Amino acid sequence: MDDTTRRELPPAQPGAPDYPTLLRTASWDRVRQDLAPLPGGRSLNIAHQAVDRHVDEGRGEVVALRCVAADGTTTRVTYADLRRETNRFAHLLGELGVARGDRLVSLLGRQHEQYVVCLGTLKAGAVFCPLFSSFGPDPIRERLLRSRASVLVTTESLYRRKVAAMRDDLPHLRHVVLVGPSGAAEGPGLIGFDEAVARQPGEYDVARTEPSDPALLHFTSGTTGQPKGAVHVHEAVVAQRLSAELALDLHPGDVFWCTADPGWVTGTSYGIVAPLVVGATVVSFAGEFEAQVWYRILAEQRVTVWYTAPTALRMLMRYGTDLPRSHDLSALRHVASVGEALNPEVVAWGAEVLGLPIHDNWWQTETGSIMISNYPGMPIRPGSMGRPVPGVDAAVLTLGEDGRARVQDGVLPAAVGQTGELALRAGWPSMFRTYLDDEERYRACFADGWYLSGDLAALDEDGYVWFVGRADDVIKSAGHLIGPFEVESVLLEHPEVVEAGVIGMPDELAGEVVRAYVTVRSGSTADDHLRRDLVAFSRRRLGGLAPKDIVFDEHLPHNSSGKVMRRVLKARALGLPEGDLSTLERQP
Questions:
Q1: Which residues on adjacent β-strands are paired with residue 470?
Q2: Do 59 and 277 form a contact (C-beta atoms < 8 A)?
Q3: pLDDT tens string 8-27
Q4: Residue 410 to residue 418: CA distance in whole angstroms
Q5: Is 287 exposed, middle or buried (0-12, 13-18, 19+ CB in 10 A)?
Q6: Tens digit of pLDDT for each residue in 431-472?
Q7: CB environment 220-241: b (16+ within 10 A), e (fewer)
Q8: φ and ψ at 444, to 5 degrees?
Q9: Distance CA 21, CA 199 (A)
Q10: Is the dihedral of CA 348, 354, 357, 359 positive or negative?
Q11: Strand 305-308 to strand 334-337: parallel, antiparallel, or no bridges (unpaired)?
């Protein structure tokens, strides 16, 4: 919060409501009253709000999806089409014996079927759990086991490469539904998506789920232990809709592009649910990042609201100003970014090159929806995450000696400008309701009625929130959270490795990249050949989670209990003070 980052940009939309007006007029109750209950009752189902409601209210011919393939061809799906397809998939789940509360895992990319699977699962009252298609076999196995999923939906290619060999190790997985060409699903327990869905009826009575019924399961990595499965309920749709309207400026008729991978919570909450609940047209792109292609999509699809990651924006900045100015981006009205801290230069670049500043916002897998944001009618202070969404009570709490909020004698707000832990008063509609099979870990996230985010922040005198960093050592690379423990565990399975410590190193584009410090067995040769072998080994097992850099180190720092001290590794790598070393195990 120095003077260089405190400069203020005027509101992107001067006529939009200012922040005090939003606080007076927006509320969870207003959204609840506007949501459509299921016919004949007061039940709440996300898929009914996202699809069926629009058809029932006469908007069935509005285009819900524009799915752009890697080759540029576009498939258009109306809300009426989406209703029929999701109904058929829900029927298929019933035929497969999937009951309310059962879990389905989706291992798909940005494709039409992802929407059908997600919303059809919710219609059936089952729980939808998306995974990154770039995961390696080990992260996939771990999440399939922990979720106890009864159904997996994926492509033939992903199944053959990443799942088939472990099928016998997954006792709960009864069915694998393969998206792809006819005849791809040849083998025991395999079902072809197209054929199986096509034979189902197009009408379906949506499950009468209650607001507190589980709907979504998102895995997120921690600094130690196994991935955490955050459980969200159907009531999350209340917060997702309000935040979409206020923070993303989404309205019926908008053309919306969220570039997040569907395996990330953003790709579900704002890539699928929120824009469809609002009644917008959703653009998806199945290809990878390419600046020319991205600008072409923005122009040709006439995108009005764009939600992307700081990494992508920094990559676009590298291409200068001529490329964006060669495309007609006049339809763009609002640009927002999430996933990691947004540096002020990107905000200014957006204002100069796109004619629109980039609106940063903050939330987590556990929060389920945007909690803090820069709004269209609010001045932007580049580098700040903005101010809390109306209805969200946020505070920055004084830190204890362990670097986390001091809660022993009750929480204590930090002074203006002082770094503390960002916390939210529990009770917002999209708050996660547990960690799957780990209630103790869940309870540890709360103190005196506050959810402790693990993020460090500071408040300025006007209530703007400024991100400082993580209180722990989770690595955030290109918007993805990577748990060091998971990477270390795979490296330790290599026959030449006896110890490993994993940290995140600053990277101009990705924010952080994974670096692994490795101690090899006595008699092994720590050379470039072994380094290449370790990189290849970890990539086969972890996919996109694998380390980009491996450093050999015979003397990793340990604490007195033998745990590798990652914070010391990182301090040494960056040339920073190593802090309290009282628990550091002394080397002989």
A1: 455
A2: no
A3: 999 999 889 999 999 999 99
A4: 18
A5: middle
A6: 999 999 999 999 999 999 999 999 888 999 999 999 887 776
A7: bbbeeebbbbbbbbbbbbbbbb
A8: -65, -15
A9: 51
A10: negative
A11: parallel
